[in-house]
Amino acid sequence: MKLPTPRWWYVREGRPGPVLHLLLKPLSWAWAAATARRIARGRPVDPGVPVICVGNLTLGGTGKTPVVAALARRLSDGGRRPAILSRGYGGRLEGPVRVDPARHSAEETGDEPLMLAQALPGVDVWVARDRAAGALAAAQAGADVILMDDGHQNPSVLKTLSLVVSDGETRDGEWPLGDGGVFPAGPLREPLAAGLARADAVVLLLPADLAEPDSDLVAALSGPVLLTARLEPEASPPAGPQVGFAGVGKPWKVERALRAAGCELADFAAFPDHAPWTPARLKALEALAAAHNAGLLTTTKDWVRLPPDWRARVTAWPVRAVFGDTAALDALLGRLPRR
Description:
By secondary structure, the protein is an alpha/beta fold. It contains 12 helices and 13 strands. Keywords: ATP-binding, Kinase, Lipid A biosynthesis, Lipid biosynthesis, Lipid metabolism, Nucleotide-binding, Transferase.
């Protein structure tokens, strides 16, 4: 059973009491120690082409997949032949396999790889549980740079550049890094200093309607190159009342973004990340939309997981990561060697 991301990880107020916090601390120490040991013992494989890892410092949604898509477009525009490598979370194929949107389903490849393959028809997207085998397969198929979607804590592939994506939205009392707690006491995958020490750059992802990042957050992420990008809708939400739904890391951010984009949101249903669209869930969404005399609207990531007969009944709302300082981005990508 998939569980939702704990909202209390990301808020300054309403966090668990001191007793529960103390009980979770030993588990956090054990998690951090196991992560550090796995990284230290790693023997990374060199696939023969540069690898850009786009990872996370935290659990829960940060928007790294739109950042991967934006980097793939930028590299392609610059004359490179990028390929995207994903573990294929939620899919049953072990790989390495090149994703074919005409043949594969989200149940086979996972939702994010299928979404990327549909959005980037000129870019190969590979799924592989064994990241090293996937990187070698992508290089052998002609890629001259590999974008590894997630994997900042995975030491199996030699990385040329390591980027970490951080949620930059701090309003309504939210704090994207929590209070510095490592899972399960907080959202961090490892201690912040350890994660930043291996990063070449941090991509601070802001919503389209937020003017500037929080200065305290910028200070907390100092050290690596800091880039900012905005998550902007590719189209306006459909007219008329809508029932929105999302099964992503932070579904409350989808609801907020829809309202900011002018959507007439009659209701919103939140589900755990990568939640399967079971008949019971779809029936409940159908009833909710009928009660409001509204359409159904969801993220592209959620839309690709819908059964084929449901896709015509639900509108997908695509978003795109847009970098602010493209010169700084190009300077970072300019470090990549060409073979």
